[in-house]
């Protein structure tokens, strides 16, 4: 896409002026500008490299995946419903006065909550009025479904412990600042009180120690059986690791996939048409052996081809440890020092757009693991996500976020 509206051009010029006033400058290496020019079917990513002349920035087409963009829109109403449910259940009498709602969610969000309360009487029951304060509580049907949350939390605990251990094993020092765990606690599916209810419960695995005045979560014991990536587990399950061995010539398919224990699952968008040279280079990359993401990154030269492919494996595994197989780009960048991620992380993600997808929908850009989704639907849901889907299905919503059989079970 090479044609932009005058409005977009004006906004970009204004942004450039503001950046100069704020002291931003282009580094001596290269800068990938996170400016995505959106169109109906694709985005144009502007990459500015250092040059002595006044050449224009190079532009590359970044094809949009509408189904994954849609995920961000589909989560808005369910998020408000679940937030209200948590607020109501947090009160002793399991109800909240409507006048106190603003104290819980703020002035702006209050109106969204009130709209949801009015729209979904199957979930929220409103009582009072005239001389008595108006209050909101869950309907009897919603209360019955909400009672399943405790069971979902019990089923989640071993999953959370395992994923938290694997996250610490990915890091170079087997430790992460607690403030960074807090940054992704929702993505990991951790309960709000995990620092009191979960970590002290497993002293054989975790400890919290002070390092230079900052609290760190430490891994207490290494478990080699956990050092298997989600990618390797899936290949073993599907039996694909048996293909593409030495002495066996298997031509790469046009979709970029290759039967090899070193290959990643590739999902290119419908509008992407790779040429022969691209596929040949991709075949070499897919066949290239690389160190496990669970080996310490300090052991490798970051400029080496195998080490660069290992970074892709680290990002793949990091997303696999989240319950919805996605994180914001800000959250991923936060782990740069712990995982020794490249400085130009966004460029790495865009380069491997068959594995990862970046959407600008929502407040912040979000990175998806493509293989985890079928259209807009997350393929594998953990117990807490299945519970949440069951509760939100009380609203009668039939979007692809939820399984079709959930409503039939309510």
Automatic annotation (TrEMBL):
Region of interest (Disordered), residue spans: 233-252
Pfam families: PORR
Domain of life: Eukaryota
Matching InterPro entries: PORR_domain, PORR_fam
Domain PORR: 63-395
Coiled-coil annotated residue ranges, if any: none
GO MF annotations in UniProt: RNA binding
PANTHER family: PROTEIN WHAT'S THIS FACTOR 1 HOMOLOG, CHLOROPLASTIC (PTHR31476), UBIQUITIN CARBOXYL-TERMINAL HYDROLASE FAMILY PROTEIN (PTHR31476:SF11)
Name recorded for this polypeptide: Protein WHAT'S THIS FACTOR 1 homolog, chloroplastic
């Amino acid at each position: 896409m090479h044609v932009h509206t005058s409005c977009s051009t004006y906004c970009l010029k204004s942004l450039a002026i503001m950046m100069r006033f704020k002291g931003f400058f282009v580094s001596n290496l290269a800068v990938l500008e996170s400016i995505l020019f959106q169109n109906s079917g694709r985005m144009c990513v502007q990459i500015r490299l250092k040059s002595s002349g006044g050449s224009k920035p190079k532009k590359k087409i970044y094809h949009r995946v509408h189904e994954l963009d849609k995920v961000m829109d589909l989560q808005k109403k369910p998020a408000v419903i679940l937030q209200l449910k948590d607020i109501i259940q947090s009160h002793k009498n399991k109800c909240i006065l409507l006048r106190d709602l603003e104290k819980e969610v703020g002035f702006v969000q209050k109106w969204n909550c009130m709209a949801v309360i009015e729209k979904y009487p199957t979930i929220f029951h409103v009582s009072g009025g005239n001389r008595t304060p108006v209050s909101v509580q869950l309907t009897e049907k919603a209360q019955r479904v909400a009672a399943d949350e405790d069971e979902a939390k019990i089923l989640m605990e071993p999953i959370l412990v395992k994923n938290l251990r694997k996250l610490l094993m990915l890091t170079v020092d087997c430790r992460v600042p607690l403030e960074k765990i807090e940054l992704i606690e929702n993505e990991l599916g951790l309960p709000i009180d995990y620092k009191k209810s979960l970590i002290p419960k497993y002293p054989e695995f975790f400890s919290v120690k002070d390092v230079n005045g900052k609290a760190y979560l430490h891994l207490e014991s290494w478990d080699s059986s956990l050092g298997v990536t989600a990618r390797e587990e899936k290949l073993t399950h599907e039996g694909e690791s048996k293909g593409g061995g030495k002495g066996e010539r298997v031509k790469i398919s046009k979709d970029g996939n290759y039967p090899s224990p070193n290959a990643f699952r590739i999902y290119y968008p419908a509008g992407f048409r790779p040429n022969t040279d691209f596929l040949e280079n991709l075949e070499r990359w897919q066949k290239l052996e690389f160190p496990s993401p669970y080996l310490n990154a300090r052991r490798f030269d970051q400029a080496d081809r195998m080490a660069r492919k290992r970074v892709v494996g680290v990002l793949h595994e990091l997303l696999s440890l989240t319950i919805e197989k996605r994180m914001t780009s800000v959250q991923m960048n936060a782990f740069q020092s712990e995982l020794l991620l490249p400085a130009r992380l966004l460029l790495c993600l865009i380069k491997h757009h068959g594995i990862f997808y970046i959407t600008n929908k929502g407040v912040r850009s979000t990175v998806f693991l493509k293989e985890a989704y079928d259209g807009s639907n997350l393929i594998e849901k953990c117990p807490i996500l299945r519970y949440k889907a069951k509760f939100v299905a009380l609203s009668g919503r039939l979007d692809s976020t939820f399984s079709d059989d959930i409503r039939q079970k309510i």
